[in-house]
Amino acid sequence: MSAVKNVIKDNYNMMLLNDYLRAKIKDAGFSKVEISKTPTGSRIVLHVTRPGIVIGRKGSGIQELTEVFTSQFGLKNPQISVVEIPKPELSPSVMCNRLASHIERGTAFRRATMWTLQQIMEGGAMGVQITVSGKLRGDRSAFEKHSVGILPRAGHHADVIVSEDIAHVKTPMGLIGIRIRIAEKEKLIPEFEFKQKKEEKVKQDAVPTIKDESIEKKSDEPEHDDKPKTEPEHDDKPKTETEQIKIDAEKMKSIETMEEEENKLKK
Asked: pTM, whole model, 2 decimals?
């Protein structure tokens, strides 16, 4: 088999593996998978939002995935490791799955799109673009694009800064495609900076530092805190992606879409 055919076969198997993991560990918030071949076997890294669901009780989830990777995908001696995503809102794959789940549950696509845009920007993204296409409101196919922030469209910066993913969802009207592109601030080249940051640095340098002797004396003395210590807050983080989607669906009802604003103006 030629080298070209080997590359095509590997890419095809990678596509099948991504589709399998997207459906299998959906509740774990699957983002991406990385495979590297070693002399002892195949090293597989799964990037998810909730590693506990993938690992399972006493590693039962890892054992099941190992058997599937060996039998169905032909990976020799797979060594699986699970990595938690620090910011799920900056992962296009996770947000695509969440937006697809909202539309599948019957939420209006515009309301779900606006909520997803808001969540991604609050997560610290530099810019985001969401494209929804298919039979959205009638028998004829259409598409809508919604963008916020700064998003490079072409060139080297777009390849480095922007990450994207595509998801599909089945509805009674037909198949709807979702494409999300996210530009991350952390991937910016150091020579480029925002003007706001430069202005803040100039202001900080211009303000003189004044030493107050009374403050220094007080700082030397031991501080006595008479306030009662509060108990640590309990972490109410959802355990699965399904719970996260249900919580988001309730919060999403407070968002006003363009259609609702138009109806108010007509009245």
From this structure: 0.72
